[in-house]
Prior knowledge:
Layout: H1 11-17, E1 23-29, E2 35-41, H2 42-50, E3 54-57, E4 85-98, E5 104-112, H3 124-137, E6 141-153, H4 157-162, H5 187-199, E7 204-209, E8 215-224, H6 225-246, E9 249-251, E10 267-272, H7 304-316, H8 321-324, H9 330-335, E11 348-350, E12 357-360, E13 371-374, H10 383-399, H11 414-419, H12 429-437, H13 450-470, H14 474-480
Parallel strand pairs: 1-5, 11-12
Antiparallel strand pairs: 1-2, 3-4, 4-5, 6-8, 6-9, 6-10, 7-8, 10-13, 12-13
Helix pairs in contact: 3-6, 3-10, 5-6, 7-10, 12-13
Amino acid sequence: MTATENAPKSLEDLENLLQDDIKVKVAGIDVDGVPRGKFMSKDKFLSSASSDGFGFCSVIFGWDIHDTVYSRELLISNKANGYRDIIASIDLSTYRRIPWEDNVPFFLVSFLDPDTREPLIVDPRGIMRITTERAAAAGKQCFAGVEYEYFNFQETPQSVVQKNFTGLQPLTPGMHGYSLFRTQLNNDYFRDLFDVSAQFGITLEGHHTETGPGVFETALAYTSALRMADNGILFKYLAKSLGMKHGVMPSFMAKPWGNLPGCSGHIHVSLRDASNRNIFAVSDSELSSGRTGAAYDDTKFMSSEGEQFLAGVLDGIADVMPLLVPTINGYKRLVGGEQFWAPNAITYGYDSRAASIRILSPPSVPPAATRLEIRVPGADMNPYFALSAIFLLGLRGIEKKIQLTTPPISHFTPEDRKSGKVEMLPTSLDAATIRMMRPDSVARESGMLGNVFVDHFGGTREHEVKLWNEAVTNWEVERYLELA
């Protein structure tokens, strides 16, 4: 894990760091990617840090995004065990201060099983740690980047309720991607997102308007995978907090408007060896003409292990879709397919934004920047789960030496779908969850997520589908109330 520069290395460092503070803020992450936390007195925090953790109610893994208890009993948190405490282990390397809350010190926690004190596999930080440890056992380090697109509204939590979540006012009108003018309309908010992120320990690589009314896109700087997932979740927390200050509500919902592009959550991934060399990159001698023996021209500037990683992702991506697209609404974003650059098929291609997996390699980037961009997830993804799924699939591809058997393809026709030339991804959370939970799913393999994770997380997605199936929408009322 990459620590912040001034993160405490010992309890003595921690005490010195907090000598002028009276309280500390801590948070863990639930399955929907929502930070759940509290303030602690400095004395209680220091005591917990010295005793390897403190008790935290397991109900955060027993209820949904709106604190409704799941429809059926799940393995980790349920009535049978009385919603017992799990252990919240303080991760000192996540130290930062919250600039918009009087610089209060802040730490993330990981959750441990109270009996074994092993990482809780359904804890987002827990599965990410398990993933990076598996990579480390194979002599590899996981690195990643995340890009978020998000609509911004001139609304507050109170106003959207008063409006019954309809007729919301976008921050700016019109379609203005990469606009230098639209940012001037809300300059303080726009600049705060960039500047305060740096103060909060989140380095941004890019920050601009995207096409759509009030849409921004923010790219978080490449770093180690666990740190990236932390930064991804905390950037959302920061954006929503700063939005309250400026009278703005940012939304990371994947598809808030039916007739407009959705909000992506593209993730970039690569592996490095112990010497920090990019494992996906070709050797210097291969740069001029490409690697001989590459499966296809699109992968000639990727190493053989990079190609196997790609093949592993292609082989299993349909079985882990709920981890990439975890909401009912997320699949609405994929319906547009190529129309909105939201790929919904198992495709890949060199520098292709129309493909589900975009290969970034020479000559478009330097060898050290060789990577894969997974373009399926929306901004509503939980980055810990999405990154874990992709890295586990890729590592599985390398371990099994899976070879590319389908050629690169970006654009395809309805005939290609009918003939089976192109395999489509699941088109709903229901279908995706059923596929992930079937007995022979790649997700269930011991080297992947395993049965405990799949059964618990799958149960949470079944609950989401159940609530959707029971809901009566405005569309239904408008369509059938009078004429049915």
